[in-house]
């Protein structure tokens, strides 16, 4: 396994792999790897000849009041995790390499980037789509792997790949969870044991919502959201729920009445535990 810090070196390696007929699988990450990231790396290991991952805490997807400086970082630990997952190359550039002083170009997936998370994190997806496009241009993968944990991110990247005719296939991998159901996240290190226990309520609520829709034919979304909010507030008094949304999984448009709706239902939410902001979702077909 090699660590590559320079864009030019990474491009040369990827180009060589392509020319020699190797299939490249690429997993972009911000590091502080956990089993969620590993599931993506192992899927890539399974499907591709060469596995490249990037570790880059991307400044442009954080707004000034967010946790860019505090975001957990531990390269040595990540190195060993990558090695155990069979990674071939870690692309580990520094900020100055990715964003030169005269950097001026951003790509934005309009509309999809403004809803749900975008309402609370206005510049976030512009930063995400720009860095993902840059990383894909550098690593030239045939396949790229994202987690369902960040549902909107997967939808936005899918749209960008389609709209810009990018020559890469997107694989979206299931959310990996703690035993209690809490979605694994690098940010979970910010949580105390008590907060982790309480935060398991979020996924329980999402599963309950799915059950109510599919088994009890609950179709009034307003009422559903009220029940969920109540469930979370009762069972997790230290949470502060920011939003719950019920949308489709392509245009992320709100579904107001589920009665005649057929197709993918995405229920997503964000909640604060102290200063830590957690997101989670459940996706199913109705
Ligand atoms: P991050 O390092 O948080 O930017 O995440 C890198 C990739 O890992 C993204 O595609 C995430 O959606 C994915 N990911 C993060 N957490 C999980 C999880 N618990 N299960 C599956 N994928 C995840």
Q: How would you summarize what this structure contains?
A:
The chain is α/β, with parallel strands linked by helices and about 290 residues long. Helices cover about 40% and strands about 20% of the residues. β8 and β9 form a beta hairpin.
Structure notes:
The chain is of the alpha/beta class and 286 residues long. It is built from 9 helices and 9 strands. The strands form 2 sheets. Strands 1-4-3-2-5-6 form a 6-stranded parallel beta sheet, with helices on both faces. It has a 3-stranded antiparallel beta sheet with strand order 7-8-9, covered by helices on one side. The structure holds adenosine monophosphate. The site of adenosine monophosphate (AMP) has 17 residues, from helix 2 and strand 5. Adenosine monophosphate binds next to helix 2 and strand 5.
